[in-house]
Amino acid sequence: MITVREKADCAARALRERRFVYPRLVREERMAKEVADREISIMEAIVEDYRALADEEAAQQKQMRRCGPGYSIAAFARETNIPYRRVEKAVKANEIASVTIGGVTRIPETEKDRVLRAYGIEAEAAEQEVARYEPET
Predict the structure, then answer these.
(1) Is pTM, for the whole model, over 0.85?
(2) How confident is the model at residue 29 (pLDDT cuts 50, 70, 90)?
(3) CA–CA separation, 92 vs 81, rounded Å?
(4) In this structure, is the dihedral angle defined by the CA atoms of residues 35, 36, 37 and 38, taken in order, positive or negative?
(5) Within 13 Å and on the Cβ side, how many CA atoms surround 6?
(6) CA gap 18, 53 in Å, rounded
């Protein structure tokens, strides 16, 4: 299987080649300058797209490696619509139960309902608020 990163690298090599060859073709009048510029612009966009996809794929893979049961502090903050810093402080003050293993802090899923009740937030209201900011697919 060919990875997205390999495709991005291949497209980057093709872009370097075009930047090297096309000026000579234009000088020799074998290619119009407008066509050369357009072809290079298209390849730049392809490289940019593949690099973004490759970076996203790498981030997802990294996240998958770090995943475990429960929520990260950031995920818990998103799910409950409580500011990240507040969740972080509550974890440090042991107001929110958490487990830290190897530098990774996880908040058990059971804490979500307890914390929402403690903060006086309706679970449905929090989910609707989060859904407002999630992109539709």
Answers:
(1) no
(2) very high
(3) 19
(4) positive
(5) 3
(6) 22
